[in-house]
What we know:
The structure holds three protein chains of three kinds.
Chain A lengths: L1 H39 L8 H33 L3 H4 L6 H33 L10 H19 L2 H39 L4 H37 L6 H36 L5
Helix pairs in contact in A: 1-2, 1-4, 2-4, 2-6, 4-6, 6-7, 6-8
Chain B lengths: L10 H14 L8 E2 L2 H8 L3 H14 L2 E3 L5 E3 L3 H26 L3 H12 L1
Chain C lengths: L5 E11 L2 E11 L4 E5 L6 H9 L6 E6 L2 E2 L8 E4 L11 H11 L5 H11 L12 H13 L5 E5 L7 H13 L6 E6 L2 H4 L5 E5 L5 E6 H8 L3 H8 L3
Parallel strand pairs in C: 3-8, 3-9, 6-7, 7-8
Antiparallel strand pairs in C: 1-2, 1-4, 4-5, 9-10
Helix pairs in contact in C: 4-5
Amino acid sequence: MLRKCLKYDLKSIFRIWLLLAATILILSPIAGLLLRSFLLRLDDMIFPWEIFLLMGGCFLLWAFALVIMVLVYIRYYTNFFKDEGYLTFTLPVSRSTLFLSKVLTATIYDAATIAVILTSIATALAIAPDLSQENFTLLGSLLTLFGLLLGEFVSSVSFGTVVIIVVIVFEVLLLLFLSSFTKTLFYYFAITLGTSISKKHPIIMTIVLIYAANSILPTLMYACIYGLVFGAGAAMKLYPAAFTGGSLIALVILILLIGCIIVTVINLILWFASLGKLERKLNLA
Amino acid sequence: MAWSFDAHLPVSVQLTERIRMDILGGKYPPGTQFPTVRFLAYEASVNPNTMQKALVALEDEGILIPRGTTGRFVTEDLSLLAKKQAELKNAYMRRALTGAKALGISTHEFISFIESEEQ
Amino acid sequence: MNTPVLMCDKLCKSYTAGLPVLNNFSLSLTRGKIVGLLGPNGCGKSTLLKLIAGILVADSGEIKICGHPRSEQTNALISYLPERPYFQPSMRVVELLDYFSDFYADFDRERATRMLTDLGIPQDVRMKTLSKGTKEKVQLVLVMSRRASLYLLDEPIGGVDPAARDYILQTIIGNYDPQATVMITTHLITDIEPVLDDFLFMGHSGQILLAGNADEVRAQHGKSLNELFREVFRC
């Protein structure tokens, strides 16, 4: 059943996504040429009109990501809380499956959109020349540089350190992966809560909730970080031995792990809060 | 098109009357297979159980013969059909007479009228 | 099978505190009946249907479908037609057929296709391009093409022209299944009366004021269902 839900959820905005993605990918080589043209005449002091077009291109990339994100959230709202809900919630499918399908749709489109944006940038960089090298494109230079750094690093460091670095990188990636769900779950919860609080103006209520959260959460976060930094500073004074070499590395790994756990807990809280509302308090007009 | 019904007799009774008239009028010849409940209910736009009730009443009268899974058949008993037809005609004429009497039409007036209409 | 196809036990539902739309509502329906749920606006007819379909959650009370407590699984036994269109406007008719085929094992796609052809509705058009009446017909076709145990039709003939009304009533009759029950809410009593087996008059707070067999009303009360309704619900 999840596959069927996903099929229709993904299909619903696929046409628009494809259209925008295709447009961006087609425009990327042009952006590359613009960049090339700009770079090749850097010495000439002529008005850099290419830069404005490139800025427009960057705006397009940002707009693409925003539009897709908004469309996904709109679909969540219309498919669950407007007239379509009469069809959705009378299907022989559990609410958690329906909700999971929506979460995965958001994540899949996030990933796909990022992939398109990165491809677009890479294409542009693959056409633009690296002026400091002969016959090299910007992309080529970047990759070569990265390859060299990696090679030097790997050859000069012990196996044990490489393992530690891999673990830390893995943890950071895990943290980013888990956080990507947090954004979706947070917005879905705001929409769910907004529609249940205000029947007449659910969208306005949702925006109010998002705004409130976005104002309060950063403050909370800064407070936490300040507390952590203060605590770390005090701990460093009291136990200087703990903050050298191996124990420092272990501490970093531990903190990242705790971070992953906290994000998972937050995700679960948001998940069950939304699902609870969908299962018990659904009150379609 | 849905069959129309008046507001005072139960629908099943009106169905029985109408179908009886159809049969006696020759729409369903004697001995032929009679349409199914579902078919007639759909034609008339009525509940199938109501139509079933109407047809069972005709079975009770002997006009329709149920034959198990094969369905219903119109009776081949021509004398019964003739008797029913006569009953219907008499009932109709009785109604006409009662109506005429209520209007004060005398028997003589009525007969003269019929004769003049015939010409 | 003697299990009632629908059993509601002491259902209570309020939208605002203190104003119950349904107050200890109880009902039991057997299979093979076309039942009319009749009453003035706001008496809780739509609310009851929504509770059975799962769109709303009751404050208290029980609902059982074919003996099983109401759940997502029992949704497979229920075919619900709400008052309003519930499909994605950008979906094509054929995509809606795919959708129903995908999610409902009891969806009879051939039957639906046949009915759409009879109505002259092409399959590759988007729903939003259809007129209001055509949209309602498509929705009815989809709902009636399911082989469900319980059909819930909320005001199926309310907003359509008389010809469409006839078509809808004929479709309901033509779809009759002795194993299934159809519950219809409407305020067009005269049109619905010949189609019903049983009827329920529902008053405020979901009180059942009168119930019985539609065909026997004229014999018992000497008036049509419409006239009886006006008498019972006289303001």
